[in-house]
Amino acid sequence: MLTIHYYSLFDGFDDLWxxxxxxxxxxxxxxxxxxxxxGSTEIFSALSDIRNTLTGDLPSEKLVHVxxxxxxxxxxxxxxxxxxxxxFIVGNQFLICGDGVQAEGLPSFKDLGFDVASRRVGRFQExxxxxxxxxxxxxFLAKQELYITNLD
Length: 152
Hints:
By secondary structure, the chain is an alpha/beta fold.
């Protein structure tokens, strides 16, 4: 669910993007392109820059995530590591198309009728370390690593 929430915000409407900042604490760390950002404000700023770059000049025709593989495993005391691998395509909302992964309310990838490989403009790999917060049911992103390759 975190992955769906995160990519829905990242690839979604600008007026909802600011909610992504609440996923981080002041001890959270985000790594991208050899740079490390710490704290919710610094991470949100770095992610906003990446998001703006991927959006380009036409917000309705931007690069969006297609999650092709999603792996989760427990870590620490109550935490979870999530690894997402996929493609960037030109579109208007993120998609999940991995086998056995379908989120209720999101379009079924198989019903869209197009080949990801033919529409791929780049690839991404992302790892999230999710830890429980100080309140029951509260989780935050303790660590996030993003790798983008073959962006045309």
